[in-house]
Design goal:
Elements lengths: L1 H27 L7 H8 L3 H8 L2 H25 L4 H17 L5 H10 L6 H23 L9 H14 L12 H15 L21
Helix pairs in contact: 1-2, 1-4, 4-5, 4-7, 5-7, 5-9, 7-8
Length: 217
């Protein structure tokens, strides 16, 4: 019984440190600017305790990444992958990635950049999760191109990277205090993506698909 309580308390403290580290990364502008001393001071935690929980700064950073992946990224990808219709999947991916990920997690400005530049082998799983996202989007676009729904002017791999780059850049200019704008951001992103990918059916660009109720979390 006591062992269970200690385990829950340990998990709770680790969660608190992860949140504190996430906020420090955002405030200081990246992992290179945040030291273990910064984390210990902000978490009111001794260095020995920090290393007891995480083992190293790298593993602490990994925990921040995996916290987002497990809580947000994986459920989103699972739902998207379960959609048989590629247009429904594309619509969901653009809207949800914008509204439930980008516009609700300002720390993605740091996490996405770190995922791209980190060379540590321990980050392979993080990179694999983001690559899975890219591959699903690429294959969805390719399927719609093969059906004649989207233009063939840009190959699917490039198109997916263009889309992800555009959506990721939102973290640099979106006002995260304006939560009321999040649903509109999802709609605007979807319209830009469909127009940019040359959706050929006028119905796909009509207001009808943007009037469907959309519930952001």
């Amino acid at each position: 019984m006591a062992s269970g309580k200690r385990k829950r308390a340990s998990q709770q403290k680790k969660g608190e440190v992860i949140e504190i580290t996430k906020n420090l990364l955002l405030r200081k502008g990246g992992s290179k600017s945040v030291s273990t001393s910064d984390v210990c001071a902000a978490a009111n935690l001794g260095r020995s305790s920090l290393y007891h929980y995480f083992g190293s700064k790298t593993k602490l950073l990994l925990s921040v990444h995996f916290s987002f992946i497990e809580k947000t990224m994986k459920p989103y990808l699972t739902e998207a992958a379960g959609m048989d219709d590629p247009f429904e999947r594309l619509t969901f991916m653009v809207r949800s990635f914008t509204s439930d990920n980008i516009c609700r997690h300002p720390e993605l400005r740091i996490l996405i950049h770190d995922e791209l530049v980190m060379k540590d082998k321990q980050f392979r799983e993080v990179k694999a999760a983001w690559k899975k996202h890219y591959l699903l989007l690429r294959d969805t676009i390719a399927e719609l191109q093969s059906r004649g729904t989207l233009s063939l002017d840009v190959k699917a791999s490039w198109a997916a990277l263009f889309v992800l780059g555009m959506l990721s850049w939102i973290t640099y200019w979106f006002d995260y205090q304006r939560k009321d704008q999040i649903p509109a951001m999802g709609d605007a992103a979807l319209r830009m993506v469909l127009q940019g990918l040359g959706a050929k059916d006028p119905l796909l660009l009509s207001t009808s698909i943007f009037s469907v109720p959309f519930s952001s979390k």
